[in-house]
Amino acid sequence: MGNSVTTIQEDAFHYCYALNNLTLSENLTYIGIDAFRDCKIEKVSFPKSLTTINSAFRSNEYLTEVTLPATITNISNWAFQYCNALKTIYSLNPTPPVCETFSFSVVLNVTSVYVPESSVSAYKNAPIWGDVFYSQIKAIPATETQVQLADEVEIYSLNSEIVIDKTSKNEVVKVFSTTGQLFYIKESTGEQIIIPALKNNIYIVKTATKTAKILI
Which residues contact 22 (CB under 8 A, 6 or more apart)? Predict the structure, then answer.
């Protein structure tokens, strides 16, 4: 899916039984109800441009792993209903996303819910998370794979801003318009960079290791 996609309408891929591999747009802000219902998707990693997971993935009987970025704050009813193959959930928000009563209805085989180490207690005491997954909630392991993921530069849009994460200290970050005009340049301090931008524009972001096209 190209990064120019910001919205997926209701029932867009409903009953697409051959759909088993999915990469969502980094600029996606809305996924409609039942957009991916009854597909055969095996893993899904949501982009940081999303804040809410609607009931878009229910009855995905082959779904084994879900990754929720730190921007996710709400998970609607029936979001993952009947996803009985689901084994692993990564939730990266230090504050447990608000779940509705049936967000994980009839999800019976989850073995691990990985959350930030400092948030294990919060998740275990949060409604739905603690009710459904209390014994499965554990700290995200500091495995080699996780370290590699943490080191990768992330570039995305959120609330009319360009967000750049995980750059190295002193790494030069540049943002250009599609005509090549320099919009922003700064030497990174290693902290998250947030750049206000104009809506309905496309920007090209360049770091030492990554180039990305971002739609605001």
Answer: 1, 36, 39, 41, 43, 44
Which value, in Å, is the radius of gyration of the alpha carbons in the chain? Answer: 18
Contact between 47 and 27 (Cβ < 8 Å): yes
103-to-61, 73, 183 alpha-carbon distances in Å? 16, 13, 42
Backbone angles phi, psi at 123, to 5 degrees: -65, -40
Domains in the chain (CATH in brackets) are: 1-151 (3.40.50.12480), 152-215 (2.60.40.10)
Torsion angles phi and psi, residue 113, rounded to 5 = -120, 105
Average pLDDT (39-57) is 92
Strands, DSSP E only, in 23-160?
Answer: 30-31, 43-45, 52-53, 65-68, 74-75, 88-91, 98-99, 112-115, 137-139, 154-158
pLDDT at residue 142, rounded to an integer: 64
Tell me which residue has tokens 């193959």: 85
Predicted local confidence at residue 171, as pLDDT: 82
Instruction: Name the pTM for this structure.
Output: 0.68
Would you state the pLDDT for residue 148? 39
118-171 pLDDT, tens digit each: 899 999 999 999 999 999 999 987 653 443 344 478 888 888 899 998 887 778
CA 95 – CA 180 distance, rounded (Å): 39
Of 40, 110, 41, 104, nearest to 78 by C-alpha is 104
